[in-house]
Structure formats: C-alpha cells, structure tokens
Amino acid sequence: MKHEDREIDGRMAHFEEVCRTEGVKLTHQRMEVFREVAVRGDHPDAESIYEGVRQRVPTMSLDTVYRTLWLLSDLGLITTLGPSRERTRFDANLQPHHHFVCVRCGLTRDFHSDAFGDLKLPKSIESMGRVERTHVEARGICTECAKKKTEIGTIATKKKKK
Amino acid sequence: MKHEDREIDGRMAHFEEVCRTEGVKLTHQRMEVFREVAVRGDHPDAESIYEGVRQRVPTMSLDTVYRTLWLLSDLGLITTLGPSRERTRFDANLQPHHHFVCVRCGLTRDFHSDAFGDLKLPKSIESMGRVERTHVEARGICTECAKKKTEIGTIATKKKKK
DNA sequence: TTAGGTGCAAATTCTTTGCACCCTG
DNA sequence: CAGGGTGCAAAGAATTTGCACCTAA
Question: Using one digit for the tens of pLDDT, what is the confidence trace for B18-40?
Fold first, then answer.
C-alpha cells in the first residue's frame, strides 16, 4: 500500500501547511482528527471518528471532534457527504434527474439530461456492488449568492482576522 | 404551467394508488404532506414542509409530518437528498472523485473516472448558477448487502403484513 | 507569555415515541 | 365498527456552547 501511504502523507502535509498559513494552531487533537478522516476510506461520521481517535488519544472529547471537523471543513481540508450542516431534505421527483447544488446557500434544483442517462462506469466499481442508477450533482454558486459577491469570506478566515 | 400541473396530478394519482395497494390509509394529512413535497421544487426539509402544510391544515403537527415523510419514503414515493436517516459524514479526499453508495446500508466508497471529468451540462443549468465541479453518485446495492439477499422487504411492507 | 484550544457539563436543536382520542375503510 | 392514524407532550439523539484550565507558538 505504498501508494496509499504516500497519499495520506501528502494530505497530512497539506493539512499542516494550511493550518500554518491560516494561523490555526496545530494541536495533537487536530492532527489526530484529520488523520482519522484521511486514513479511512469509508467517510465516517463524527461519532465514528471520535471512537477511532480515542484509541490513540483517550482524553479526546466528542465536542472537540465536532469543533475540529467543522474547522477543517471551513479550511477546505475536508468536505461533507450530502448537505452540510443541514437537516434532511425530501424529493418527490421519481424520474431520473440530477441536481444543481449551491455550495453556499444549499439551494438545490433539479435538471434533466439525456446524456447522463447511461454514464459508463469504470470496472473498479464492480467489486463494490451493483449500480442501479447514477445521479449527477453539479456544485457551484447559485445566481442569488453570486450577486452577493464576496460579501463574506470563509468562516475560518473571519475567525483568523479576529 | 400546464405541464407542471399535469406532473403534479400524476404524482398525486400515483401516491393514491400506492397507498391503496399497500393498504395504507389515505388521510387528509398524508395527502397534504405529499402534495407539499410534490409541488415544491426546492426539496424542503421537514420543518419547511410543516409550515407549508399548516397554512392549509392548521391542526397538522410536526411529528405527523415526520411520520408521514418516512412512510412515503418507505413506500418509495419520495426520496431524501443525501444520506437518509444518517448523521453527517466526512470526506478528506479533495481530488475530484465520485461515490458508489449502497442504498441499503449506506456504504460509500470513492471511485475515479477520467471520463466524468468534463460532463456536458445542459444549458438549462445556466440560469441556476455557475457550476464549479460535478460529482457522480452511483447508487445501488453493495456486495455485502447483496449476499443477504431479500432477507427483508421494505419497512412499509413489513408494517402492512403486521 | 498569551491567545487560541480543549474538556466538561449543560443547553439546544432536531427527531422520535407513548398514549388516548379520532377518522378512514 | 375496528384498527390504523393523529395530536400532544415528553423522551431521545445529535450537535453546540459557556467556562475555566491548558498549551502551542
């Protein structure tokens, strides 16, 4: 697994660099939380990350894990699966369709595309399972948010500027 | 908006039919909750659906909205955006990549595809906003869950069979 | 040294559940 | 009329926050 280790090392190095340039302290806890997310390929939730880190840092608390995860997210070092910091949302459109998602405000709108009907999936996917349908998520900034321009930077940046 | 109205009517009809065949009672509340989700194109959360329905059915309670939404989801009449009934999950992979998601257990694994690098988006998306990146979600049943076969039907079916 | 970071515990927020009455089939 | 469905209130889960002590820079 030489390749994977190198990948992790690269992520750790990037993490440390971003923390330094953003003026965020490199604590033991933060390194372990980031490492846990970086090493695991299963996209764990906060609780699961907490359990993993606790084996190495028994004093770690769950609230620090949460604080750290959102910090990392604000720094652009990690992302969330699905809507971030939002409640579950529902969709009554059963037709095959795709979503445009605004990464700033969460606006989500359907769009259709015949071209996306039969995307050719790589063979690597066969070992994971049988795919029943594919769905494309186009992420960007919606028209409304774009109007507001650079009104606000990232939360992390705001904090730093104090 | 002739076309849209027809689409909604079709969804309502399908909803009523499924309820009948599944032996689920067609209550005023359920119809209004389903209609609210069907009519709105913004994929609302439970609270928002609650507010919308309450204007027509002032006695509606939030817990009924939740119960109804999960029932509709079990019946396959609606779906959720992102992970269903799950906590937020994190991803440290910053490289452009895609996900295979098991709709049964939630297992999520990365996969890569050069072909998906530059999907041609329909022009209809331009009015929504500026797309920065696209991400493909391949949904299906993972190898592990497939082994377990038809061990369990849908929750709705289970309920019905009592 | 010192401002930011952490752990603890309490507070919030979101969602689910028990129960008695109500309404669809 | 019977059994599922609903509203209410209270419980539970997940996540956030206030505060005093701790530690990286």
Answer: 999 999 999 999 999 999 999 99
Q: What is the per-residue pLDDT across A27-42, written as a single tens digit (0 to 9) for each?
A: 999 999 999 999 999 9
Interface test with A, best of B14, B62, B89, B123 (most A CBs within 10 A): B89
- Rounded to 10°, the helix A62-74/A28-39 angle is 70
Asked if B20 and B67 sit in the same domain, the reply is: yes
Locus of tokens 């720094």? A75
Q: Are A66 and B95 in contact (CB under 8 A)?
A: no
In a domain, A7, yes or no: yes
CA A23, CA A161: separation in Å to the nearest integer? 9
CATH number at residue B117: 3.30.1490
The number of folded domains in chain B is 2
Query: How many Å apart are CA B51 and CA A126, to the nearest integer?
Result: 44
| Interatomic CA–C1' length for residue A27 and nucleotide D23, angstroms | 9
In terms of residue numbers, what domain contains A28? 3-74
Sort out which chain B residues have CB atoms less than 8 A from A13's CB and list them: none
Same domain for B155 and B103, yes or no, is: yes
